[in-house]
Design brief:
The protein is built from 10 helices and 13 strands. By secondary structure, it is α/β, with parallel strands linked by helices. Helix 5 links the parallel strand 5 and strand 6. Helix 4 runs parallel beside helix 5 and helix 8 crosses helix 10. The relative contact order is 0.13. Bound molecules: nicotinamide-adenine-dinucleotide and uridine-5'-diphosphate (UDP). The site of nicotinamide-adenine-dinucleotide has 29 residues, from helix 1, strand 2, helix 4 and strand 5.
């Protein structure tokens, strides 16, 4: 048995499954815990044959989880479990809040019992509709605490607060990452996020749906870059929070044009209402990640989109 044993909660999801691959690849024991609410067991099917990989289908809120993991020599816990796309968390408002609060607390208790390192996947959404641009980790954010998106934003803000409270009160070794919009293979094609919508609309010959006037911005990070950043933080002695994302910023109109160009299509764009509290601008300041982790993204939007289009194209057969 290898000396490191990491729980990846949410390990059957998009980012979690790539993390499982990387951790298994470097010879660690990996326990993937997932309730398959927004993930897919197919994302880790290729790992189930590995002796150092275990899949536990369980909600992180379920108290049975602690007993299910009791005999494992846990050295680290990466908490990736949460609905992540706006349609997914708006469909499960109470579950999202419970996952971020009670689920995170149970994982912190398990980390405490095993003296394990605890890693929290937080989000750029803690900055809300930001009044500071680009966003540095010192910015406290502009979140509507009772808006529809608050079920996700406040769950993550609470999870950050709880993680720091366990660190201060119990001396737990913790890491907090704030992930900015990430895309790539293994996203669920119907997750409703902009990159999957645009690519699948373009591949189906349907108009691309622009919410609002399309002038809002996001900064898109390719999954390989993101996962390298997450592991660099997990392995470091930096508590964080640390932003991990790609600082190259695009409007949704620019993203739509890039996707159409790569697919070789001149499909029209159609306008749809802007969701409530949709952030107008988002771009990470990644000075901390560069200086403390020696990490920065290397994959351009065009190259990352090409890989993602190939993946969705192949998945459609
Ligand atoms: P995803 O939906 O593909 O993965 C989340 C996984 O967690 C899924 O497999 C889901 O089934 C599982 N899950 C959800 N609730 C659970 C629960 N209560 N118990 C057990 N498993 C549960 O989403 P993703 O994009 O891979 O996101 C992973 C993490 O990264 C999330 O915490 C998300 O908030 C965070 N994040 C992602 C992005 C991004 O752009 N992808 C940006 C910011 C933050
Ligand atoms: N968006 C869009 N068309 C879509 C889906 C989303 O214009 O079909 C917009 C959405 O309003 C937001 C941006 O794209 O401004 C990013 O949305 P996504 O759901 O991917 O992520 P988030 O809002 O969480 O950053």
């Amino acid at each position: 048995m290898t000396s490191r044993c990491t729980i990846v909660a949410g390990g059957a999801g998009f980012l979690g499954s790539h993390l499982c691959d990387q951790l298994i690849g470097r010879g660690e024991r990996v326990i993937c815990v997932d309730d398959l609410s927004t993930g897919d067991s197919a994302n880790v099917a290729h790992l189930v044959v590995q002796t150092d990989f275990r899949f536990v289908q369980c909600d992180i809120v379920d108290p049975a989880l602690t007993d299910l993991l009791a005999d494992e020599p846990i050295t680290g816990i990466m908490n990736m479990a949460s609905p992540a796309s706006p349609p997914a968390y708006l469909l499960r408002p109470i579950e999202t809040l419970r996952t971020g609060s009670r689920g995170t607390e149970q994982l912190l208790e398990i980390a405490r019992a095993h003296s394990a390192r605890f890693f929290l996947a937080s989000t750029s959404e803690v900055y809300g509709d930001p009044l500071e641009h680009p966003q540095r980790e010192t910015y406290w954010g502009n979140v509507n605490p009772i808006g529809e998106r608050s079920v996700y934003d406040e769950a993550k803000r609470y999870a950050e607060a709880l993680t720091m409270a366990y660190h201060r009160a119990h001396g737990i070794d913790v890491r907090i990452v704030r992930i900015f919009n990430t895309y790539g293979p293994r996203m669920q094609p119907d997750d409703g996020r902009v990159v999957t919508n645009f690519i699948n609309q373009a591949l189906s010959g349907e108009p691309l749906t622009i919410y609002g006037d399309g002038s809002q911005t996001r900064s898109f990070c390719y999954v390989d870059d993101e996962v390298a950043g997450l592991l660099a933080l997990f392995d470091s002695d930096v508590t964080g929070p640390v932003n991990v994302g790609n600082p190259n910023e695009f409007t949704m109109l620019e993203l739509a044009r890039e996707v159409l160009d790569l697919v070789g299509s001149d499909l029209p764009l159609v306008t749809r209402p802007l969701p409530s509290d949709d952030p107008k601008l988002r771009r990470p300041d990644i000075t901390l990640a560069r200086d403390l982790l020696g990490w920065e993204p290397t994959v351009s939007l065009r190259d990352g989109l090409r890989e993602t289009i190939d993946y969705f194209s192949a998945a459609r057969g």
